[in-house]
Amino acid sequence: MLDFLFTYRGPIVGTLFLALIATIVWAVLYGRKLMRTEKSDAVFGNPERALGGWHWVITGVSFILLLWFYFSWDAARAFRPVAANEFCQVDKLSSAGNPIRSVLPLEKSFLKGTSLLVRENRQLSDLADDLERLGFSDTEKAEAKEIVSLMRLAIVGATSPQYLDASTQTRFVDIESRITALTAKLANEGYPGAPTAAQEEAAANIARWGDSGNEIPYAPATPLGYKFAAAAVEMKAISKDFIKIKNTNEHFLGQVDELKSQIAAFDTKAKAATGLDELLVENRADFFKGLTHVLRRVDDGNIFPPDALNGIQTALVALDGEQKSQQGGLKYFGALMMPGGEIRAGSNSCSEQGSGRWLPKPSDTLRTFVRISNPEIGYKGNPLLWYKMKPFGEMVDLVVPDFISSFVPGDFPRHDENGVVTPNLKSKVHDFVTGNFVSFKVPMPAGHVWDSLIRVVAGLFFGILLGVPLGLFMGLSRFSKGFFDPIIELYRPVPPLAWAPLILTIFGIQDDGKIFLLFMVAFAIMVVSARTGATGTNLSKIHAAHSLGASKGQILRKVILPNSLPEILTGIRIAIGVCWGTLVAAEMLAGTTGIGFVENVARKQSDYEIIWTTIIILGLLGLLFDLMMRWVIDKTIPWRGKG
């Protein structure tokens, strides 16, 4: 089955996606038709109006599955498996041009040089304002202000077109012409030529989208991919040459050299001053450090005249336009079928970003579920849900208390002088209750799901067994309410996870600690539910029972308990959900088996498919328990809401 799902994943997912759309349309149309033709005497507010509606159940389930297929990009992968690889090559070209694009006002509002000018001039103004609190003499202040003015002139020297040297202009023109030539190549249908034999062989052996450790194949696999991959190589070389271009005109460099010497001389003179307090010395050091940093950033040569990059910007805009044109229907497919993210190309791999990354695809999740459901594979050495052959004696040891053997008359036998032990009735009973006898083997459920299920059922059972009677008597007895209410209300608001470390420390990582924690959770809920049900019993019914001569026990069994059942059963439904959540958290803190343990290991390994598999398993188990409780409620209190 696993191989079949893997091989025909695309057609299966595509068919299911279309079937879900058709199912939703049919269910909505059927529901509207039913509303027009159905006759009902039930008024608004009557619970009978909420009965039935199975077609809306189908609609809701289909809608959730449709969203999952859509936003996980599983439908996109089914209808166009090569789309991700093509988007990977497209992003290679876009990423290759980012060093140039970051300098131009394309994705940002300002030129990079403009932003640098604004920042450096603001920094210079702040430094000039700090002069008054640095204890400089009038002569020193004038010298410092002159340095600030010269730095502003140096910035002007970098932005003035008359000082831009011819070699820099030539390099800008070369970059522009190379981008223009690349745009023409991209528009050519024959570019970059027929793929080589090595490229064809690689494309034939390339893994499909999602079939390998790397989610998206990195090497191009289609003619469109070859074109963008080849263009990305050329664009990367162009960007590498562009970032080497600096503003190195002689006028600007001369101003920078003069400023360096003036700042160094002024700094040396200021450090020679004596009698200054420590704070003032520190503030002066910060002042000169600020001047040096501004000069260093200006000297980096990333500021050019305002119109120097216009030609490159025009050429890059044309390249971006041609890039979008060459994508053709690919960009529309991405906008329609791959919402909530994009494909990003790294240095040696491509990855999904957005909902396609963190929301595993249903087909992959199903494949993972089938794989770990195989008892021979399982997860971390244990099956998900299977069985093991265990001796019947272990079942006896688990159910029958060991102390029973102490009630048998006589003493346990002792060995004789020859080391021989002759068993008697007492030892035989002891061997039986401890399971120490040869017995046949019986199949017993085992696995992560079974371990979690047993823990929840055990904790819930003891919580109901002790919580319901106590809650009923707290609702009937002044002593019980006054004595137990502070204890219950003291620990009930505390989150279960706050108790978990303490309980696990006391009991260890075995099942008894987890069961006791679940018991605490269920016990408080059941006490409150039963107490609320007992105190909410209609007083007229109790008076009627008294008048008919009923005893206290009869009133409790025939009046109070039936009237409390709706609250008690609702409490059980709530306790089940809280117990599951608490158990998973407890198994994540300490455990070697269980659904929580599986999810914790998957979380550490960032295995999202396993995480979603555990979520689905928990949801299905919760739904199963809830359906069972609905059946119990329907059979136990069918009169609810009809009084």
Automatic annotation (TrEMBL):
Topology versus the membrane: Multi-pass membrane protein
PROSITE patterns referenced in this protein's UniProt entry, alphabetically: ABC_TM1 (PS50928)
One Pfam family this sequence matches: BPD_transp_1
InterPro entries noted in UniProt: MetI-like (IPR000515), MetI-like_sf (IPR035906)
Residues of the ABC transmembrane type-1 domain: 449-629
Swiss-Prot/TrEMBL keywords: Cell membrane, Membrane, Transmembrane, Transmembrane helix, Transport
SUPFAM superfamilies xrefs: MetI-like
GO biological process entries: cellular response to sulfur starvation; transmembrane transport
Transmembrane segments: 12-30, 51-71, 453-476, 488-509, 515-534, 574-598, 610-633
Subcellular location: Cell membrane
GO CC annotation: plasma membrane
Family: Belongs to the binding-protein-dependent transport system permease family.
Protein's UniProt name: Taurine ABC transporter permease
Organism: Leucothrix arctica
Lineage: Bacteria, Pseudomonadati, Pseudomonadota, Gammaproteobacteria, Thiotrichales
